[in-house]
Amino acid sequence: MANLLDKIKKVELVGRGGASFPVYLKWKTVKSEKSLEKYLVINGAEGEPGIYKDAYIINNYPEELMGGVKIASDFIKAKKIYFYLNKSLYDSKNKLNRIANSVGLKGEIIFFLKPVDSGYIAGEESTILNIIEGKNIESRLRPPFPACSGLFGMPTLINNIETIYNVYLVGKNKYQNKRFYSINFNKKNKGVYFLSENLSIKQVLKETKNYPDYNFFVQIGGDASGEVLNSNQLNKKVDGAGSITIYNLEKHQPEKLLKYWLNFFRDNSCGKCTPCREGTYRLCEMFDNFSLDMRKEKDFSDLCDNLFLSSFCALGTSAPIAVLSYFKNVYEPLIVSQKNLKVLKKNVKRKK
Amino acid sequence: MSKEKNKEIRIKIDGKSYKCVSGEKILDVAKRNNIFIPSLCHHSDLDIKANCRVCVVEIKGYNRLMTSCSTIACDGMEVFTNSPKVKLSRDTNLKLIFSTHIEKCSDCSSRFNCDLLSLARRYGLNIANFKDRKSKRKTYKFSNSVEIDGSQCIDCQNCVDVCSNVQKINYLKKTGKGYKQEIVPTEDENIECIYCGQCTLHCPVASAQEQYNWDEVENILANKKGKKLIAMIAPSTRISIGEMFGFPYGYNAADQMVGALKKLGFDEVVDVNFGADVTTLVEAEELLERLSDKKAKLPMITSCCPAWVKYLEFYRPDLIPHLTSSRSPQIHLGGIIKTYWAQKKNIKPKDIVTVSIMPCTAKKFESRRPELKINGLYPIDEVMTVRELAFLIKKNGIDFKNLKKVKSNDLFNDGSGAAVIYGASGGVMESALRTASHIICKGSNKAKICHSRLEFKEVRGLKGVKEVSINLDGNKLNIAVVNGIGNIKEVLSKLKKYHYIEVMACPGGCIGGGGQIIPSSMDIVQKRMEGLYSSDKKEKVRTAHDNQVAVEAFNWIKSNKLSHKVLHTKYVSRKK
Q1: DSSP assignment, residue B374?
Q2: Of A113, B107, B375, B483, which has the most beta carbons under 10 Å away?
Q3: Does B86 share its domain with B138?
Q4: B49 contacts in A (CB within 8 Å)?
Q5: Same domain, yes or no, for A202 and A263?
Q6: Which residues of chain B have pLDDT under 50?
Q7: Strands ordered across the beta sheet of B382-385
Q8: Res B446: pLDDT
Q9: What is the per-residue pLDDT for A88?
């Protein structure tokens, strides 16, 4: 078993839920906790729009996934396993359960349905622990980290589906530093691809033959919280939960996109902390009042900075990313060019 | 934190080095060293939530800010409380919070000690930077005691925490999410508010607050119409009101209180301590009766805490026969004023208006219990919390600190030391034991060797449940003192063990009452408690039965066959 941890460390496996935390550190912490009762929680509640990999893994690699669950469970000697799934994935529970029985996990897994209308935050790991315990749907104060004091106050290993799948591969010496990429066009999924994690955005688009033949920009790592980049910024690796969403530069409607991002965070904020609950609300209000010119207001930059600086959890800190990077990388360069501005204005009119 | 771990840790705050204890939070280190960091959702009685985000600080090496209430001081940490990042976040969060709280300052009893207003002034912030967004929120009223005004709530959730985790009532819930979230009373048929008012005591912005009576009292004072206006001050209020006027914690400001009430226009001020002595006489007598009657229900349980009575009537009506039939001190005193005093003074009871100053929100509910009426009149006409009184004093510009002692009334005295300690958990028990042990000794064959005990220190202090066996003239008496309703189940589960139980719904007793001066915390309650016991020690008369005037009034009621109307009461089973 120590052998497994060494392997995980060696291949530098990181969590695929979005935060990219080193897997071996989390596993080591849970393992070294002295408690007799430990829990394993599998997070299969893809809440970020634009990410389709969990469903893809469940549909295509369920045996490997459950093999990974077995490895994780044996590693920490889990008392119970909670398999947390959102509604669209919950239908796979019977299939997963059959496989679980065959890998020696009979009766050890509790399938847990993500509450309806619980939103984005209900995919965050400490929030999931609250949900399983029947508490308020909001994230927990850290420290203590779930690895030390998680479910019912016990050490808890909580990993995303893709991470567990990767652990299975590492165990079988088949891990090749690949990750899943969800590629979308204007929020419609084109496909999920399994490629090296070291590719740049441009390489991923080219290798999958998805590189557009028109002017475009992209959003990386989730359609809500992901950073927006223009077509000259594609030499970066793909961050977060692994998505690339392509937008047509000339045909997109800036106001519609802005409103989507702003409303998403306002409506998905759990309400716990001031910067997120109130800040996302005020950003929507500012958009109603100033539209795209909101970016020139001091309150706008204060609210965005404040979300990053003082939010309680990652939902809040990531809330301004899309909007700020869109203004900076796409919108501002666009309006510099008069020609493009005209095109854009036409689009706005068309929308109205 | 264990003592072995107390190795020296030092952190820098704004460039200066400070020593800290292992595990100590940055906010606590700052407070200890008089460094101001604003905080709203933080309360030392409650678990740390870190949700208001106004106590953020910058820590060298970290890009984002940290909440000082939740971040443990680590050796070598460099903390900044006023950097540009901190200013941006703190000010923005405060402005956002201002816009969740509709200012109703003109008649808000917290306006002289409002954290929001003082923070706005301190940092020069416009409280109307963002538009108020909660104008359509509901106000939830719980009987005539407590209300939660949703249009003023800043979503800190202190009320929910104290109701659920401390009092273990679970009456308040959060519904909805994000900007739509709201604190609401539960619809669960099996859960009901007991009016303890701990939510009001822990609310940083008076969104949860007592239902006011100060406006009514102001009206009465302005339109006397030949009525006699009598103010009554509860034991624990004298020990806390000074906090609002620059006196140290635990200072007994009874003289200033009397002076202020007279200045406000009351004709007489009477001490509820006097009523408490009567309560002790009634209760000690009943206890001894029950102990000597084999058919009587035991244990006997105190009933002077109206939130506890409400709890029992709703959750455990089967235990009603265990409650002492004795009325509470404010009701005793109001009844005595409207019978005994009215007759001595030749005033018609209906021309008397009694206003009691209480540390309690549930006392408002108690005052309107119809079964307490005497010849159609409520013993108490208006109940104000001590917070409301402090507000009226400030509103009227009375220089409280420099008020001189004035004569309060010409009939009732200030009660005994046994009455003063009614304000602390264990005090009612101790007072009753002082008198019960005296009565037993007096009638005992062994009287020559029996010295009635004065102090029962075993029942004092802030422990959740205090259990003790006491020897009363050879009879073993098993007693329990429940300090805070959150500890009640432990005692109810082994009821048969005991002969006598005191229950106070608020942690610490009335000195931690829901109507007490804000801020209030267990540290402050501890200091108020010390103040009460030192006041008791200074009294010449320290037992109820030695309060001759109270005994006289008590006997007068009895000989006029008014016991039933003035001294005793009944309880009812309640549904939601």
Answers
A1: B
A2: B483
A3: no
A4: 141, 272
A5: no
A6: 1-3, 449
A7: B268-271, B228-233, B352-358, B382-385
A8: 57
A9: 86
